[in-house]
Write a structure and sequence with these properties.
The structure is a single chain. The longest helix has 52 residues. Helix 8 runs antiparallel to helix 12. 59% of the residues are buried. This protein is mainly α. The protein contains 16 helices and no strands. Helix content is 81%, strand content 0%.
């Protein structure tokens, strides 16, 4: 049982959680929308670009194993505030570094990735707390907020490209806006732990952290999330590049393909709760995996750019619920939510480590567009193991 918290406090925390998700998505998509311009400024081929993008994943993978104990110790509010500041520093460093060379960009992206990894766990933990306080499932809508932020960031990026606004000016402004909004709102989070809950004693977090890595269901959910993270991450990093180089559209239209992908993912996440409540997690994510596979194939093999845009929409829809469903599954047991979310996110983010170099190296050999078909194989794996996200028997309604 929770101690009593005023309804207006919970509503404020709900709004603050949305802001954290939206701000994270907006910052990331703002960077992603300018990848083609940074590539051109630095003169990178696909393999080199893949290695540069690897810095984001490396930073995230370093942060994620640490984030569970950190969130447990200082709380999701302080974690998100600190990581918002660090992300701002990283984004500005990468933006200004694009004028100087590869090394400062890599440093900036590493900081961005580190901040994003810990921020991600912090805001997801707060999301599970707010869900329990509200007594209803809204996790996928928080992730829809993330996607809404990515759509806004991508559309703004497309506008900045069309207006020829320099990368450094664009991303520095984004960093200032995101830091100000998220630091302010994260202070309104509700407490992660309730001392009246069973297992809330000082020794419980240590037990959960040790055992989470040994739980077969948690590890399988992590692999499931990895497959969907690869699907989402490859779309974030490479759709605009593939559209420009493979389908020969203009840079602005290539960025709009990215925006279409993100828009479809946002729609799927916003309307996902009704489907999940009606049909269950496993059935819904399996169907979405099939839709995503069809979308990737259409995007890759489309004979005309219009059909490729349709493929990007199906791809985004198919990718929409995998990550939030995995996070919700990790939080099924409130007493171990922080540890399990950290483990699942750590495994899932391996996709962001593998995705950029895999697509980059394959792109050098068979073109970036054709390399994207690897996404379909991961979606097939996700469909096979989707049973892992089914709630435990004693928690089903």
């Amino acid at each position: 049982m929770f101690t009593t918290v005023r309804p207006e406090t919970v509503r404020a925390a709900t709004t603050a959680t949305y802001v954290a998700f939206i701000g994270s998505g907006f910052a990331f998509a703002s960077w992603a929308s300018r990848i083609p311009q940074v590539r051109d400024q630095l003169g990178l081929d696909p393999a080199a670009l893949g290695m540069v993008l690897l810095a984001i994943a490396a930073g995230s993978l370093l942060a994620l194993p640490l984030s569970g104990p950190v969130v447990t110790r200082i709380g999701s509010s302080r974690t998100v505030m600190a990581m918002a500041l660090l992300l701002g520093v990283g984004l500005i460093t990468a933006a200004l570094g694009s004028l100087a060379g590869v090394v400062p960009v890599v440093i900036g992206l590493f900081l961005l990735g580190f901040a994003n990894g810990a921020w991600d766990v912090g805001m997801n933990v707060q999301g599970t707390v707010v869900e329990r306080r509200l007594g209803r499932s809204i996790m996928s809508r928080f992730h829809a907020g993330f996607s809404l932020g990515t759509v806004a960031g991508a559309l703004l990026g497309a506008g900045m490209v069309a207006l020829r606004v320099p990368v450094a000016a664009h991303l520095t402004g984004v960093a200032a806006l995101v830091v100000a909004a998220v630091v302010w709102q994260a202070g309104r989070f509700v407490a992660d732990h309730d001392e009246t809950e069973p297992g809330a004693g000082e020794s419980a977090p240590k037990v959960s952290a040790l055992t989470a890595w040994k739980e077969p269901r948690t590890l399988l959910i992590g692999v499931f999330v990895l497959a969907f993270a690869f699907t989402e991450g490859v779309g974030n990093d490479w759709i605009s590049i593939a559209a420009i180089d493979g389908h020969h559209v203009s840079p602005a239209l290539g960025t709009l393909a990215f925006a279409g992908f993100l828009t479809a993912m946002t729609i799927g996440r916003w309307y996902g709760p009704a489907l999940l409540d009606r049909h269950g997690r496993t059935a819904v994510v399996r169907i979405l995996a099939v839709i995503g596979t069809a979308g990737v194939a259409l995007f890759v093999f489309a004979p005309h750019p219009v059909l490729a845009y349709a493929g990007a929409l199906l791809w985004g829809l198919g990718a929409s619920l995998g990550f939030p469903v995995g996070m919700s599954a990790g939080g099924d047991d409130p007493s171990r939510a922080a540890a399990r979310v950290s483990v699942i996110a750590s495994i899932g983010y391996c996709a962001f480590l593998a995705g950029p170099p895999v697509i980059g190296f394959l792109g050098d050999r068979i073109t970036v567009l054709r390399a994207l078909i690897t996404v379909a194989a991961l979606l097939g794996l996700a469909a096979l193991i989707a049973g892992a996200v089914r709630p435990p028997v004693d928690q089903r309604k």
